[in-house]
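Quarterly update from the structural biology core.
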Amino acid sequence: MSCDIAIINGTVLPMAGRPDIDGGVVTITGNSITSVGGSTIDVAGAKKVIDARGCVVMPGFANSHTHVASNLLLRGLLEDVLLFEWLQTMWNLKRNFDHETLYWASLCGDLEMLKAGITSFNEHFDAYDVEPQIDALAEIPLRATLGYGFADRGLYAPRTDYSHRTMARFADIVAEHHDTRDGLLHVALSPHAVYSCGADMWHEVRRLANELKVSIHTHLSEGQQEVAYTTENYGMRPVQWLDSLGFLGPDVTAAHCSSLDPTDIAILARTGTKVAHCPVSNAKLGSGTMPLRAVMAAGITVGLATDGPASHNSSNLFEEMKFAGLIHKTVTEDVEFLKIGEILEMSTARGALAMHRPDTGRLEPGAKADVIAVNLDTAHTQPVYDPRAALVYSSRADDVVHSIVNGRLLMENREVIGVDEERIRHRFHEAAHDLKRRSIG
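Predicted structure, tokenized:
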């Protein structure tokens, strides 16, 4: 069988409800998966064969909500503080962002995600420039949806003019960037939050999304302060206010949703709004824990996400999976809730759906070839009775040995091909510390 890449001898986890395959084979031609099955698949004509013995072969992780560059520049700088204090310090750095600093931050963040098995991500730009990330993705070509951030009030009021200028030219941005680079790059609309965007901005974003057929990515119901804000100003909870504006819909990814009541959940289900769940970030910032059992029971699509590395400290979905399993067993007082298979689906197939990239997140013929191999032959995973249990509760980001994105082998045996990792780390370190000195001393 002729193909570009054949991965053999691994335990294949196709995801999307399909059974695992011991000693399985995955073949790739161009940017797509061509076959998934057992050892009877003929790989004699493969241009490259990867022996995944001792590994799980699975879809790359889909990180359905993050802030790569901006948050990476704040990682470890401000700990043990409340959400809105944290946002204020972040803004002190953001107002001094420049293209060069954002470029190295983006590149370092993309490198971190690739080495952790994240092959696709949904980026929310909090009203700052997107172009440095577009440049970085030319060097480390992950599958990315880049949400242009908008805001016009509160802490983000200084970005009002930028936001309106960007919305005014969004048709040109879509024409230039959306669904380019062989489908790897998408753009989206990212109004920041209910406390930073007024009703007119939400209406305009909805109009643009309908007209241009692009997705929307926003923060929603992230803690009781946000609920208090809309209740005081609009007489409604955040989800209910956006619903009253006709904003919510199946093209929306709502990040966090850690403060939902039954009416909120019913609205999200009725409108088809997707949810990106960030349990580590929510716990760290004291934003609450999403009522996941009720959300899942309502049939809402939920993806797992890291949020940015300032409030998570790493772009690591292995940590997110383990913490999600633990926190929801704790808050529900039900150790049988949120099984390992469900957690893995939220990190792959459902995560891809939550960020509006249904062409990835699963291993099946015709799906995009975003594939990782995770080594389970380690001291911290043995004995492996169940590969899924090992992945969720024992594996680490540095167990990812191979990463393939869109059919291209980007990392082989932990080496990122054609990338000078030391240079990226050094240049980012210098740029970040210079920004800190200019911004907060």
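The two ends are 61 Å apart (CA to CA).
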